[in-house]
Design goal:
- By secondary structure, the protein is of the alpha+beta class.
- The protein has helices at 2-33, 35-42, 90-100, 106-113, 129-137, 160-163, 179-183, 185-188, 199-204, 228-245, 287-290, 300-310, 345-350, 354-375, 402-409, 418-426, 464-481, 545-548, 550-563; strands at residues 59-62, 68-82, 121-127, 143-152, 166-168, 174-176, 210-211, 220-224, 249-255, 262-268, 318-321, 324-327, 330-333, 341-344, 433-434, 440-445, 450-453, 459-460, 495-504, 510-523, 530-537.
- The strands form six sheets. Strands 1, 2, 3, 4, 7, 8, 16 and 17 form an eight-stranded mixed beta sheet that branches.
- Strand 1 (59-62) and strand 2 form a beta hairpin.
- The relative contact order is 0.11.
């Protein structure tokens, strides 16, 4: 009997503890997590019985100290409408409404006021809290003041193509239309079940703190790795490049090469998602994932690493540089048409020699070259969490002709997206491993529970030794050749390479005076923390990327070193 009594007592105690825990959690949920939500719903004088307040999860940037900044959130204000059948004095009503809606058209207002059979005519949206309350306090017959919420983007044009925006679909529902808003629409969309709708589901279901498939995450806020100050600096840099050289387009990505987390990314020109209805829709698409480019000589770094990894060359290998060669009746030449004679591997990168890159491609052979570039992912999507991503075009590497491999070795004849390009180049900054680039790092559920996202295992493409040799060559490019060595950072080793590619026309022939400039680099070379990719399309009045992108790249590098207080590595990193 005593044993049964003690068992019942334990059960009752357990139930009491559970109920106490439930009440504490429920109070926290109401008073802390959704306090603002219930405060709004308590304002009955502002919310009609048929009105359901718009709600949607936020998209958050992450500051370097780990705190969050909203890039997309829900703003709260008022909607102003009138009931013409109850308007006692339209003139008085219009004068009062003007204080809250300064741009309210007199003609349109009185046209609405004349519709006596229509009980609801909207006059203004997105009215500030102060103005809405002031108008409501006047209690004017026929004037309706209701709570309204709408999507707003505090970051404005910063990262706009990647953040995206919401808009109406054909069925008159609001959904994400571009960027993260679209990719994570199911996560951000709120079902309208009330603040307790998913309470127990979130607390007791899927208790694992990690979500392996971002698409399966529950409703909540999307936390990204985008750092707002770095994003602002990148945006300023891209605009300055584009304005200075009159380019058609300029883009950039800053990534952690070890994790694939995107710290900043953008394309200029851009748009303001707060006013997208009046913006140029050509800028809505994200060219970082939706467009392909021939990146030119930055690809030589990957050709070099492939040759070293395969063992067909060593850093001490030399070749006879004749300035130009003929391959399958096509002429391949160095940018200046000059021969160098007996030339070591270092000079292929330092002097950006096309004939030298072709030499490595020949050593690798068709199958060898194709294998490396396929493993780097240039013919596939990266899997980044942005919509409408396309694959790179490397069909030339299926050709039996040598010339296709020779031109691919220096970044012509194959076209890749910027995000796929930084993924491939990122292997040089990550011990030979390719990672999945991504923006979202976690989902914060409505309950406050944070679920981390995982993005698969890195794929080994190059040996650490091949990457180390390539990195040392790229550091030497910066120290001795880039701007004649004047941009070298004494305390920090930086590995980098420029790229200048001719642009192909609709007929497949290359324009003689239109270029695509690119630049990539990573640092500290001894243990890379950041990799940067910059490009500018059709810059005017300049031919080489070293002229347009060297100083912007170095400026970003200095900024990141100072902002993140990156320790110097020259003392521990030697050639």
């Amino acid at each position: 009997m005593r044993r049964a009594f003690r068992l019942r007592l334990r059960i009752v105690s357990g139930v009491i503890i559970f109920l106490a825990l439930f009440l504490v959690l429920r109070l926290y949920f109401v008073q802390i997590v959704h306090a603002h939500e219930y405060s709004l719903r308590a304002e009955r004088q502002y919310v009609s019985s048929s009105q359901e307040l718009y709600d949607r999860g936020s998209i958050l940037f992450t500051r370097k100290d780990g705190t969050y900044l909203s890039a997309a959130t829900v703003a709260t204000g008022f909607l102003i409408a009138i009931d013409p059948s109850h308007l006692e004095d339209p003139e008085v009503a219009y004068t009062a409404i003007l204080e809250a809606v300064p741009d309210a058209s007199r003609e349109e207002f009185f046209a609405s006021a004349a519709k006596k059979e229509d009980p609801y005519e909207v006059i203004g949206h997105k009215i500030s809290d102060e103005a809405g309350r002031a108008l409501s306090a006047k209690d004017i017959p026929g004037v309706i003041v209701e709570r309204e919420r709408w999507r707003t983007y505090p970051a404005g044009s910063k990262g706009a193509q990647s953040v995206g925006f919401t808009g109406y679909l054909d069925d008159n529902t609001i959904a994400g239309r571009f960027g993260l808003e679209r990719y994570y629409d199911d996560v951000l969309h709120q079902q309208g079940e009330g603040a307790f709708g998913n309470f127990f589901a979130e607390l007791f279901a899927n208790l694992d703190s990690v979500v392996s498939d971002p698409k399966t995450a529950r409703q909540g806020d999307v936390i990204t790795s985008i750092e707002p100050i770095v994003q602002e600096k990148l945006d300023q840099t891209l605009k300055a490049i584009n304005d200075q050289y009159g380019s058609e387009e300029t883009g950039g990505i800053i990534m952690d090469p070890e994790t694939g987390e995107i710290i900043a990314l953008d394309v200029y020109p851009s748009f303001d998602p707060n006013n997208f209805q009046n913006e140029n829709s050509n800028y809505f698409s994200n060219h970082l994932v939706e467009s392909r480019y021939e990146f030119g000589s930055i690809i030589k770094a990957l050709t070099m690493a492939s040759g070293l990894d395969a063992g067909v060359i060593t850093p001490e290998t030399v070749y006879n540089d004749t300035g130009c060669i003929e391959v399958n009746k096509k002429r391949i030449c160095n940018h200046d048409l000059k021969a160098r004679g007996t030339t070591p591997m270092q000079e292929i990168l330092s002097q950006s020699l096309n004939v030298g890159a072709s030499f490595i491609a020949t050593k690798l052979g068709h199958s060898g070259f194709r294998t490396y570039f396929t493993k780097l992912g240039f013919g596939t999507e990266t899997g980044i969490d942005l919509p409408s991503e396309i694959r790179g075009d490397i069909h030339n590497l299926e050709s039996p002709r040598d010339v296709e491999y020779d031109t691919a070795s220096f970044g012509q004849g194959i076209a890749t997206t910027p995000i796929a390009t930084i993924r491939g180049l990122g292997a040089l900054a990550n011990h030979g491993k390719v990672v999945t680039p991504h923006l979202a790092t976690a989902i914060r559920l409505e309950s406050g529970v944070v679920k981390k996202l995982t993005w698969g295992d890195p794929q080994q493409v190059f040996s650490p030794a091949a990457v180390d040799d390539t990195t040392r060559m790229l550091v030497k490019v910066v120290d001795e050749k880039l701007s004649n060595g004047t941009v070298k950072i004494p305390e920090m080793s930086v590995a980098a390479k420029t790229g200048t590619a001719q642009i192909a026309g609709p007929d497949g022939k290359y324009y003689a005076n239109l270029y695509f400039h690119s630049f990539f680099g990573y640092f500290p070379a001894s243990d890379p923390k950041y990799i940067i990719l910059l490009y500018t399309k059709k810059p005017q009045g300049v031919q080489y990327a070293s002229e347009t992108l060297t100083h912007p790249f170095m400026d970003l590098t200095h900024f990141l070193i100072n902002y993140y207080d990156v320790p110097p590595d020259r003392a521990t990193y030697t050639r």
